[in-house]
């Protein structure tokens, strides 16, 4: 990894056995921990920072800002505030980050409020080891067992939920959480508390907060790029950021979405380049799979095969805009007519959390035919997923008051698209605008029925009345319902071209590259599965074997883990 945070609590020489100090940009050794970071942007405003004095030291890793009225360097400010108010100091930080503090012999590492960075840890005979690279952390464990439950979640959902991983001895720091020498717990920064319209203007607040969030990130160094689609989210950044130099869109130059993105870039005075994907779009190499971190699918790193074509130092994107601001995980109200769903106003009055979340994660019903042959506890994958989801709803029930926020919370905690962020941040100065603390606060204060595309579009118009001069090609109407009806008609009526994604056809590329033959020779049952599921199986098989330096785990083992093999990894 080009960027990494790594440390050992209660260190007794283990750090130097597990890592070379010279490979990091900064190493801090206190009474109770040794911590190191590697980040080419270390020291830039808004980026990773360190500070130490006679009291102890503070490490901030990622994208992080102090409160707007603070002029003290952010790491020094955090150490001061931690001395004054303890863990509440982390609530004052803003961004996508991990923070480590050692003060008077006490050490703690904490995530940002929505855990945009996963930090892993393992307890070893030489101390508690933690870091952003799970392979380095698990290498400190003398004996590694596979967590069958975590493996099942990965294969059948596309995510390993909560704090679990695919190895028993490897855990993730909790969502909105912290880690100390003897505890892994949660903070209280992400709790739903909806406000009424009389006290909180949803549109005006969102517009003002978007403007400030982008302004905070407008002074990064070098050439400024943005991954731009023809939709709503990333165009907000292009319209508001004063210095975007170039916009990149994945697709073919003549695809309608690429054409719209090009027009948006021209509208705001930025250059535009089309990232034409080749056979590397389905990148099944370890160089991309490593960004799944063993908890998410690498398929979400859409741009990976085009990295060599991105000529930018800083890269912006619209990840999580739909999740936090437009209700991606919220169940919309629809009516079923002859097996076809048509949208109505508002939210589904009686949603099924398992059905909603499984559709937003990576569940595919084709997995069901292999499931009963391997496990007696459940009849289908959906039965297994239902238990996982309701376990999470019960665990986090003190953070929400309605079923819609419960679904959104579990979705945000286990967002499957994070590898997109991990890969970008490892190769560029990446800016995660949606992780701004003010936008997270807006999400928590805004009732679920107001977190929708219409609210965001109104806010965007307040920022720039001409922002929708070029409409998204798959949303030609201002009405959501009309757009959905046209999508349906285009799919059903002969002679009319349906709306399409600019990305390559995944199934076609899989077949053209003969990946069944290359990835799964001798596994005909796996050949029957959907392409996305097969890619997921390859992801986790490749990642786990590389993590423990072995080739013992086969694709069949992933589907039906034999206990004896797993206990010997």
UniProtKB/TrEMBL annotation:
Gene3D superfamilies: HUPs. GO terms for molecular function: asparagine synthase (glutamine-hydrolyzing) activity. Pfam families: Asn_synthase. GO terms for biological process: asparagine biosynthetic process. The lineage of its organism: Archaea, Methanobacteriati, Methanobacteriota, Stenosarchaea group, Halobacteria. This is Asparagine synthetase domain-containing protein. InterPro entries: Asn_synthase, ASN_synthetase/amidase, Ntn_hydrolases_N, Rossmann-like_a/b/a_fold. It comes from Haloferax elongans ATCC BAA-1513. PANTHER family: ASPARAGINE SYNTHETASE (PTHR43284:SF1), ASPARAGINE SYNTHETASE (GLUTAMINE-HYDROLYZING) (PTHR43284). Residues 206-290 form the Asparagine synthetase domain.
């Amino acid at each position: 990894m080009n960027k990494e945070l790594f440390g050992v609590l209660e260190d007794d020489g283990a750090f130097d056995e597990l890592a070379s100090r010279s490979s990091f940009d900064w190493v801090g050794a206190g009474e109770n921990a040794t911590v190191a970071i590697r980040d080419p942007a270390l020291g830039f405003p808004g980026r990773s920072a360190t500070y130490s004095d006679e009291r102890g030291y503070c490490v901030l890793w990622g994208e992080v800002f102090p409160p707007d009225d603070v002029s003290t360097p952010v790491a020094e400010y955090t150490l001061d505030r931690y001395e004054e108010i303890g863990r509440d100091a982390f609530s004052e930080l803003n961004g996508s980050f991990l923070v480590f503090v050692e003060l008077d012999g006490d050490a703690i590492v904490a995530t940002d409020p929505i855990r945009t960075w996963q930090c892993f840890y393992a307890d070893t005979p030489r101390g508690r080891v933690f870091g952003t690279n799970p392979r380095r952390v698990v290498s400190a464990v003398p004996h590694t067992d596979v967590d069958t439950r975590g493996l099942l979640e990965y294969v059948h959902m596309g995510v390993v939920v909560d704090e679990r991983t695919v190895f028993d001895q490897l855990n993730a720091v909790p969502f909105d959480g912290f880690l100390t020498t003897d505890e892994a717990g949660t903070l209280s920064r992400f709790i739903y508390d909806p406000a009424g319209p009389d006290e909180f203007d949803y549109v005006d607040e969102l517009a003002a907060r978007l403007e400030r969030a982008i302004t905070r990130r407008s002074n990064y160094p070098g050439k400024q790029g943005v991954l731009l689609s023809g939709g709503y989210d990333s165009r907000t950044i292009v319209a508001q950021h004063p210095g975007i130099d170039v916009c990149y869109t994945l697709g073919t130059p003549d695809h309608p979405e690429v054409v719209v993105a090009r027009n948006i870039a021209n509208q705001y005075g930025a250059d535009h380049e089309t990232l034409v994907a080749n056979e590397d779009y389905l990148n099944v190499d370890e160089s991309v799979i490593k960004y799944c971190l063993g908890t998410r699918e690498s398929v979400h790193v859409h741009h990976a095969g085009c990295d060599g074509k991105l000529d930018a130092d800083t890269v912006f994107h619209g990840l999580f805009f739909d999740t936090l601001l437009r209700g991606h995980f919220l169940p919309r109200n629809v009516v079923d007519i002859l097996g076809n769903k048509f949208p109505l106003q508002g939210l589904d009055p009686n949603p099924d959390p398992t059905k909603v979340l499984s559709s937003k994660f990576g569940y595919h019903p084709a997995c069901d035919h292999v499931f009963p042959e391997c496990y007696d506890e459940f009849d289908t994958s959906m039965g297994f997923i239902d238990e996982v989801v309701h376990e999470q709803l019960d665990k986090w029930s003190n953070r929400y008051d309605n079923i819609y926020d419960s679904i959104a919370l579990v979705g945000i905690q286990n967002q499957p698209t994070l590898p997109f962020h991990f890969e970008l941040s490892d190769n560029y100065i990446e800016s995660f605008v949606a992780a701004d603390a003010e936008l997270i606060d807006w999400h928590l204060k805004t009732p679920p029925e107001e977190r929708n595309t219409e609210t965001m579009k109104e806010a965007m118009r307040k920022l720039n009345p001409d922002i929708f001069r070029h409409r998204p090609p798959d949303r030609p109407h201002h009405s959501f319902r009309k757009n959905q009806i046209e999508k349906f008609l285009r799919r059903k009526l002969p002679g009319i071209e349906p709306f399409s994604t600019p990305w390559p056809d995944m199934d076609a590329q899989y077949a053209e590259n003969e990946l069944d033959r290359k990835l799964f020779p001798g596994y005909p049952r796996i050949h029957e599965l959907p392409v996305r599921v097969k890619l997921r199986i390859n992801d986790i098989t490749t990642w786990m074997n590389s993590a423990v330096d072995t080739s013992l785990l086969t694709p069949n083992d992933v589907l039906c883990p034999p206990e004896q093999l797993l206990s010997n990894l």
